[in-house]
Amino acid sequence: MSYLMFQNMLRQQKKEAKTFTHAFNTKRRNTPIIGRLFIDNEIIPIIDIKYEKINKKIDKNRGFYYVNDGYKVIINVSFPKNLASKYILNYIVIKLKDDNELNNFKLRIKNNEIINFTDYEDYRRNQDG
Predict the structure, then answer these.
(1) DSSP 3-state assignment of 8?
(2) Coil, helix or strand for 76?
(3) 100-114 burial, b for 16+ CB within 10 Å, e for fewer?
(4) Distance in angstroms (rounded) separating the CA atoms of residues 126 and 103
(5) Does residue 68 sit in helix, strand or coil?
(6) Which residue has the higher pLDDT, 59 or 17?
(7) Has residue 71 got a pLDDT over 60?
(8) What CA–CA distance (Å, rounded) separates 16 from 45?
(9) d(Cα 71, Cα 53) in Å, to the nearest integer?
(10) Sign of torsion over alpha carbons 128, 104, 68, 91
């Protein structure tokens, strides 16, 4: 009897794994692609982009104030299987220096141009501290 229960459990696990894989692939197919990123000789689809302002604290004699120190751009991507093992996370973070560079980046996304990763500063790698 235990052998039959074990075989039934294995069949159930295979069925669940197949269902999960099908759901994952369906979600990946149905996700809209808003741009393309060129990294490691591969063109990778961009799924989502978030922009965050970076403020720098300036200390003065009587207090402190904040100035704009650029923008942090979080790019959610869908890595192919050959690059998924190299990049642990499914997003890339770059830093844009000012409003002009941010507007140029948004325009390139809007015009569906391929974004070259080496054209921008990698924010996670170049953080101070």
Answers:
(1) helix
(2) strand
(3) ebbeebeeebeeeee
(4) 22
(5) strand
(6) 59
(7) yes
(8) 28
(9) 5
(10) negative
